[in-house]
Amino acid sequence: MASVSTAPSADPHRVIRWGIVGPGRIAESVAPDFAHVEDAELVAVASRSEQRARAFADKHGAARAYGGYGGILGDDEVDAIYIATPHPQHEAVALACIAAGKAVLVEKSFTATVPGAQRVIDLARSEQVFAMEAMWTRFQPVLVKVRELVADGAIGEVRQVQADLGVDRPYDPKDRLFDLAQGGGAMLDLGVYVVSIAQHFLGDPTSVSVSGSLAPTGADVEAGLLLGYDDGRAASLLMSLRHATPGSARIHGTKGWIEIHPRFHHPKAFTLGRSGAEPERFELPPLGVGYSHELIEVNDCLRAGRTESEVMPLSDTLAVQRVLNDAAEQLGVHHEEDERVAV
């Protein structure tokens, strides 16, 4: 586990009051899971459209809705903000939230670029404000158990990881997924999952090789990555907006293997195979849809006065962002942060 810093104050009984910036598709999925999180309350929503913010707030029981982001930043009754805007807007919004003293849970990918991620991380650490990437996969009950088994040596030394994640998305140049200005492409939306699980169990790679193709807009629509390590370990990763894939992940060790069943980024089951033994299947469903577990992690960290998560530390976020941007740039895709965001 990475070492993380701790803020000076802690309150194990504190109710964490949440706000959401960017009430779009992903926020619609996350909001209902607040019902599964003890001592957490969704109190405010902000959008560039006040009407959209109000509709979201009314639907999900938040007391206040803000048009623009200034109101939620100045709201003294908001402790933590979930940022669910398009990728290139994450940096500007996160920096403003942190400067206002608000803890942030930033939707993946964390930012559009490595420098953007570094700036958010640097400010969070210098201000001792909690920040975490919303990689919900790492907090699912299945991944918690898999992590325990790997740490206990159940499959020996981890040498290889394989993972795939693909969806069949018809090409539409107006769709965010195909619009580079909105951080479109398979790499930032789907690649973040496969790269993150590889980095979680193998660490930071020393080489990144990629093959893929682009849409007419210039966004990457499919890619295969090979992550290499100096000692011969490797990860083979696939992502696609052109076609669906099973969405499974496999962790191979010197004494066995673990298969996380589809779809691995929010799984309900896995199988453990050990040399000389019959495979064992484990069923571990999440609370609600599964976003509840990352919300619980943020709440627990804030109550303990921690400024980073030990499971999803900012160093891991930066390592994953480096791989994503490196691979995208090898394909000729160059992402940029949105400097027009008004906060």
UniProtKB/TrEMBL annotation:
Residues 145-259 form the GFO/IDH/MocA-like oxidoreductase domain. Residues 16-132 form the Gfo/Idh/MocA-like oxidoreductase N-terminal domain. SUPFAM superfamilies: Glyceraldehyde-3-phosphate dehydrogenase-like, C-terminal domain, NAD(P)-binding Rossmann-fold domains. InterPro entries: Gfo/Idh/MocA-like_OxRdtase_N, Gfo/Idh/MocA_domain, GFO_IDH_MocA-like_dom, NAD(P)-bd_dom_sf. The keyword Oxidoreductase applies. Signal peptide: none annotated. One of its GO terms (molecular function) is nucleotide binding. Keywords: Oxidoreductase. Belongs to the Gfo/Idh/MocA family. This is Predicted dehydrogenase. It comes from Microlunatus sagamiharensis.
